[in-house]
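Quick one: structure tokens for this chain, please?
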Amino acid sequence: MDNRQYGYIRVSSRDQNEARQMDAMKAAGILERDIFVDHVSGKNFEREQYQLLKRILRRGDVLTIHSLDRFGRNKDEILQEWNELTKTMQCDIVVLDMPLLDTREQNDSMRTFIVDMVLQILSWIAEEERTRIRQRQREGIDSAQRKGVKLGRPQAPLDDYFIDIYNQWKQGQITAVEASKRVNVNKTTYYRMVKRYEQEHT
């Protein structure tokens, strides 16, 4: 049986377009029917289409990915997955934007050493970039909070209608469940509104 060439594409969300990766796969000679696409985060390899592809791969088949960060984000998991595919399953991997990462060309021990070293460096870079993104997000949130910017869902208003419902509840005329229904929030949110109102008016 002839060895087959497959392509794997990952984009982080359905809002991202996989066209660039798809064009690169087709230019590499991969049939569209043999290209698998996931619209998920790269935090781990529990992805529906990737796992399906992995079950299809046979010894000698070639898996092509556009770039290492499209394969995954976590350094240790990238290395583990790479070794499983190339050593345990004995498939080849081609990374289109890094020609050095082409296991079909590993003809001697020095080549293997170089590819392993480059893979470790690039996977570390991919993970570091993910860490930096999270750090920048955290710094942005902290900065906004220091400036008094309120993040998340807007708080329900403590308007005259709420005050009227609050007074009825406080006087025992209605239950908390009924009060929360009337102000169109769940019971937990209603109690938070009560706490906020009482803090502001005591």
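The beta strands are 5-11, 35-39, 62-65, 92-95.
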